[in-house]
Amino acid sequence: MSAHSALQPAVHSPVALIVDDEVACSTEIAEFLTRHHIPSCGVSSVAEAREALARWNSIRVLISDIRMPGMSGLDFAADLSATYVSDHALHLLFMTGEATVDTAVTALRLGASDFLTKPLKPRDIVQRVERLLSTPGGLLPTASPAESTGKTEVAVSTQARWLLQERRYRMARERVMGTTFSDEPGWNMLMELMHARLSGQQVPVSALCAASGVPQTSALRRLASLMSDGYVVKERDPKDARRIWVALTDRATDLVNKIASQVSVVH
Fold it and tell me: Same structural domain for residues 124 and 226?
């Protein structure tokens, strides 16, 4: 694909630019985002990406593969941090199939918001880009050296490990439970109940709703669905009939343990 043909998007003012040496990948992502009301352009090289950024000042999000011939996505982002000039900031997402702590640390130092783990899920990409577009500011131009030193090596390394660990848990969770717990409130409830089970504590409905992180009415609806799906049960306190506790079912406990067994700790 020539640079000229690559820079002929179906939209006049793309807000997202996808860079991947696999043409089919960048094109597919761009088309999917555009169909979901995020005008996008896909290119297959750093040279084409530079041309796109120079041509369209409308671009707000750059999604780049890390491993590319010639210049890696990390090197490209580092170069942009020193040379990119615009009246707005540019959000940065990296795509990778083999994220490591070192890679994550480098990406975070360049201002990356997140990793998109391959194989990619189009709807996850849409959600991440929508979140970035609604976030004030951006990642480029980068902070000055004086500002950058505010983050210590330990802090950045810790953040990188957390990021990778979170990705691994999310992927394991989807493998074991599908998309049932793509919503955080439901997962927060299960984690609260799992902690209670392991520590021998009891959880009342009110405390579980608070742990969900959403308003009580929404939490109660999610609790009802968890009960109907067989993940949690309500148990009346034998010493006080007015008290009702919430607990995980054995099935839910087994699923959570299975997820944990599939995730290795990031060192």
Answer: no
* Residues 234 and 109 placed together within one structural domain of the fold: no
CB atoms within 10 A of CB 84: 17
Alpha-carbon gap, residue 103 to 96, rounded angstroms: 10
Residue 48: which domain range? 3-142
Q: With beta carbons less than 8 A apart as the criterion, state whether 226 and 185 touch.
A: no
CA–CA separation, 46 and 18 (whole Å): 10
Q: Contact at 8 Å (CB) between 263 and 172? A: yes
Q: Is 21 domain-assigned?
A: yes
Provide the token pair at 72.
């890696």
Q: Are strands 16-19 and 232-237 parallel, antiparallel or unpaired?
A: unpaired
Per-residue model confidence as pLDDT tens digits over 58-74: 999 999 888 888 888 78
CB 70 within 8 Å of CB 107: no
* Domain count within the chain: 2
Q: What is the CATH number of the domain that holds 28?
A: 3.40.50.2300
Q: CA–CA separation, 242 vs 164, rounded Å?
A: 44
User: What six digits make up the tokens of 221?
Assistant: 């609806």
Which one, of 124, 56, 70, 137, lies nearest residue 95 by Cα? Answer: 124
The lowest-confidence range among 58-62, 79-83, 143-147, 262-266 is: 143-147
Angstrom CA distances, 183 to 99, 174, 179, 210, 238, stand at 24, 11, 8, 16, 33
CATH number at residue 229: 1.10.10.10
Q: Torsion-angle region of residue 200: left (phi > 0), alpha (psi -120 to 50) or beta? A: left
